[in-house]
Amino acid sequence: MLLSTIDIALRGAAVALLLVLAVSLFRGYGTVLAGRLAAVFALGSAAHAVTASIGVTSLVSPAYVPLIALSTGNVVVFWLFTRALFDETFRLRWWHALIWAAVTAFSFVNCMWLAPTSGVRAAIIAINLLALGFIGLAVGQTITSWSSDLVEGRRRVRVFIVSAAALYGGLNAVLQISLSGSGAAEFANTLNSAMLSAVVGAITIAMMRVDGADLFPAPPEIQVDAGEAAAVESGADQKLVDALMRLMADERIYRHDNVTIGTLATKLAIPEYRLRRLINQRLGYRNFNVFLNEHRIAEAKAALADPSQAEVPVITIAMDAGFQSLGPFNRAFKAITGVTPTEYRRLKAMAA
Predict the structure, then answer these.
(1) CA 281 remoteness from chain centre
(2) What secondary structure does DSSP assign to 222-257, as a single string?
(3) Would residue 122 be called left, alpha or beta, if left means φ above 0 and alpha means ψ between -120 and 50 degrees?
(4) Terminus-to-terminus CA distance in the chain, angstroms?
(5) How far apart (Å, rounded) are the C-alpha atoms in residues 242 and 228?
(6) Strand partners for 287
(7) Which of 277, 317, 282, 278 lies closest to 300 in space, CA to CA?
(8) Alpha helices, DSSP H, located in the chain
(9) Contact 182/55 with Cβ under 8 angstroms?
């Protein structure tokens, strides 16, 4: 009885905090994709706090099924949130909504029809394996894109937010699978609610300790010009800026495979953190990949506008500029110029 009371109290606290967090995110950062997804993720987490039940063996009430479906679909929102949080050029596509709808619908069908026919335990395992898959995608996104973030203050809090949410989600899924049908349900549910409340509280505190404009920034439409940014800086930084721009313009190091912050820092003989600060604070970039892609796109634009290269395939120009495939090149090119590479080439040919 005591454990049940504590469980209800912890769930209520988590739901209340998540709803306040969602409203705050919508109001403060509703114009930013990462902010909107964070708010939706908070709402989905509130649905999870209401419906999460470990060790259950009976069928759920139909009234709870929509909330459970939304809670399951929240793992897709979490994955999209991590993408938007670590990649300011990320944009939602129609198929993202389709994936969310498919996962949510599968959860709904699973609760309403599959569980009664195939068994509750099989239904729980299927849903939680799906959740673990998307949590894995989110963690992978965090690991692969973390190094490209140039804003030191938010790098730490971003990793903490994603790690804490992924850790709870992963543990919850494992407990759901391993304790389904066991006799430890009451204790497990209380422990799960305590973990959820602790994670939500810790994430809220972490978000309060970093500038919201750093955590959920709107991508700048115009990057700060390198010469303008460097003109007001110290002589040492000016020399580093000049050396960095020589690497980009003369050696075209952006063409190299897997060029990283570490690669450039080694060539400049400076620590990585100093190069991050230089590119971020002196040149006005918040993401290393954006910095590289602007140089790559500049070279591609020149090649596409060159009449002597009119017969050179777009994929060749893309790979010569440092892109590994056509898809990322097309997306980066359109994000910067507003048109596709083929359209750009045609417009330049018409203007000639």
Answers:
(1) 23
(2) SPPPHHHHHHTS-HHHHHHHHHHHHHHHTS-GGGST
(3) alpha
(4) 81
(5) 12
(6) 149
(7) 317
(8) 2-29, 33-51, 65-86, 94-109, 115-118, 120-145, 152-179, 185-208, 212-215, 226-231, 235-249, 261-268, 272-277, 288-305, 314-320, 326-337, 341-351
(9) yes
**314 three-class SS:** helix
Alpha carbons 192 and 128: distance in angstroms, whole number: 15
The amino acid at 152: E
Total residue length of the chain:
352
- Rounded to two decimals, the pTM is 0.76
Which whole-number Å values give the CA distances from 118 to 65, 133, 155, 221, 222, in the listed order?
Answer: 17, 22, 44, 53, 56
Q: pLDDT truncated to tens, each residue of the chain (352 aa)?
A: 577 788 889 889 899 999 998 998 888 888 889 889 999 999 999 998 888 877 666 667 788 899 999 999 999 999 999 888 877 778 899 999 999 999 999 999 988 888 777 777 788 888 889 988 998 888 888 877 777 888 776 777 777 878 888 888 888 888 777 776 555 667 777 877 888 888 888 887 777 666 666 677 654 443 444 444 444 446 778 888 889 999 898 889 999 888 889 889 999 999 888 898 889 888 888 889 889 999 999 999 999 999 999 899 999 999 999 998 999 899 889 988 989 999 999 998 888 6
DSSP per residue over 268-311, as a string?
Answer: HTS-HHHHHHIIIIIT--SBHHHHHHHHHHHHHHHHHH-GGGTT
